[in-house]
Amino acid sequence: MSVTDSTKATDSTVDPSGRRARLAVVTGASSGIGRAFARRLGADGYDLVVVGRRRDRLEALVAALPQVEVRPVVADFGTDAGVATVAAICANEELALLVNNAGVAHYMPFADLPADKASELLHVKVVAPTMLARAAVPGMVARHEGTIINVSGMLAFSGPAPLDQLPLRRAVYTATLAHLVALSQALHEELKGQGVRVQALCPGVVATEFHERQGFDLSAVPRMSAEDVVTASLRGLALGETVCAPGLERRDLLDAVFSADLAAFAAQAPRLAGRYQAEQEVSPDTGP
Ligand SMILES: NC(=O)c1ccc[n+]([C@@H]2O[C@H](COP(=O)([O-])OP(=O)(O)OC[C@H]3O[C@@H](n4cnc5c(N)ncnc54)[C@H](OP(=O)(O)O)[C@@H]3O)[C@@H](O)[C@H]2O)c1
User: To bridge 30 with a disulfide, which of 5, 57, 182, 271 should be the other Cys (CB 3.0-4.6 Å)?
Assistant: First the structure.
């Protein structure tokens, strides 16, 4: 059954056996990876709340999934009100799955990034996923069941890349993706004994509207399909991966990154490291 009225009660999701269907909230479902998640999850038997700003796209998704209970919710995550609208759904409904997917990038030199675009980027990629997870988690913990997928990206690991190797001006976007990786890892550890799984999903370049909407034509660049990204995410959950990298054949490279993170974290001491001790800098004879 399809639903175009966003106020329709979820009681209709109870099947004749009395079992309530699982509910998934997918943000950024009006195109790309979010739409692919919605279609896959609908086919897998989830009821859906699909979120975006383009109502016509959400209604087209409802029409494309006639066998699925789909509730479109128009919300702009650039605003606190938009985030609060969806957070209320996450807090008040029996959510099995939250897919924090909505995103923009606003690639441009940091000095040129208008304040309103920087703020929008932080709201959509940091405030919204964090606040939606915060709203959803208490209920998931109480039910001892739930999954949160945070769509990040491989650029999360690109911070140290020299500009001549990666000329993309991307500081704020990269930082938001790194936030999602760290949030997912820490939250997964915090909640894993309470029945809640958290995944950071890190695609590379994907064939969606993402770049084109920002004025970049990447149609000549080899790109993964949104459907393959979704397949990797769901398979990654089954494999128990907290960070899922759909295009990375060598999983050990990511594991090495995280091992190095932990080694550096564990090796710190409350004592000024030798290289910062001024007298040792001027006296090469005294080693650290
Ligand atoms: N495409 C890639 O190469 C790539 C690579 C790595 C990671 N990602 C990540 O993948 C996610 C999905 O992107 P995509 O590639 O599928 O691009 P897309 O087709 O442009 O989809 C982006 C989605 O985010 C929604 N959105 C954007 N701004 C919003 C706002 N202010 N409020 C609410 N929703 C908003 C859009 O819906 P409305 O415009 O209708 O609001 C749209 O549904 C993003 O978070 C992105 O960071 C993409």
Answer: 57
pLDDT of residue 281: 53
| Nearest residue (CA) to ligand 1, atom 43 | 28
2 occurs within a structural domain: no
Q: Does 108 contact ligand 1 (Cβ within 6 A)?
A: no
Range of the domain at 105: 10-282
Average pLDDT over residues 127-144: 98
pLDDT of residue 103: 98
Q: Give the separation between CA 133 and CA 146, rounded to whole angstroms.
A: 11
251 Cβ neighbours under 8 A, 6+ residues apart? 245
The confidence score (pLDDT) of residue 279 equals 72
Residue with tokens 């739930």: 146
Ligand 1 atom at minimum distance from 173 CA: 47
Question: For the residues 46-59, what does the mean pLDDT come to?
Answer: 98
186 within some domain: yes
Q: Which residues pair with 49 in a beta bridge?
A: 25, 71
- Whole-angstrom Cα distance, residue 185 to residue 200? 8
> Token pair of 271, please?
């004592």
Number of structural domains, the chain? Answer: 1
Question: What does the DSSP 8-state code read for residue 14?
Answer: B
Q: List, in sequence order, every residue forming a beta bridge with 98; answer none if it has no partner.
A: 25, 148
- What the block records as the tokens of 188 is 């997964």
Give the chain's mean pLDDT: 92
202 within a domain of the structure (yes/no): yes
Please indicate, yes or no, if residue 287 is contained in any of the structural domains. Answer: no
The answer to whether residue 46 is catalytic is no
Q: Which residues of 175-205 are buried (b: 16+ CB within 10 A; e: fewer)?
A: bbbbbbbebbbebbeebeeeebbbbbbbbbb
Q: What is the CATH number of the domain that holds 65?
A: 3.40.50.720
Asked if residues 246 and 235 have their Cβ atoms less than 8 Å apart, the reply is: no
Give 17's pLDDT tier (boundaries 50, 70, 90). Answer: low
